[in-house]
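Hi V.,

You were right to ask for the full record rather than a summary. Here it is.
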Amino acid sequence: MEYYTPVQASVVAKLPLKAVHKLIDRRLIRPHRKRVGRRLQRLLSEEQLIYLRLEAEGVRLLPLAARRQVAVTMESSPGVDAVVLSEGQALVVEIKTARREVKQELARLRRAQRMAVSDPEVMQGIPVYRGTRIPVELVSDMLAQGATVEEILDGYPALNREKVELAPLYMSAFPRRGRPTRRPWTKRKPVRSSRYSRERLAHF
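Predicted structure:
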């Protein structure tokens, strides 16, 4: 069974990280605990990610007892498609759609993880696209600043559309710990630059 960090769960379930920790603290979901060095890390199963997705889609509006019933049922019966919350099927929580959505996001997460590699001897250990020296963070920053996928591919033909589109997901799901990341690429010259005469600029 694969487990995921709260940060990864937040990204996949599209639920704020603060809400994920709150659900864990209230014991609506019970994480698997694994010791990593001196730290005890809380990890979540795929079924728990599906419950988090339900929370994001509106289950959080139900009474606490009802939410707990959904979470317990999913944990005790993995793969269940629906949870009946009252007799006579007065209220049914459908799980099938959330399960499909989480599986799709987890597939994207795995592809994002496979496309990147971190080597202390390459770009000071900053994650780069496998087989290149292009930092994933650089591409994510470019998208955040308004660059289009086409513009990025024009400057970095070694990439493809999917790799560019997965950059923000990778940076959100696998944040670097410790000091703020040094960005050696910020001192580099632009990949492409153009010069315009004053006469041409007057026409813009």
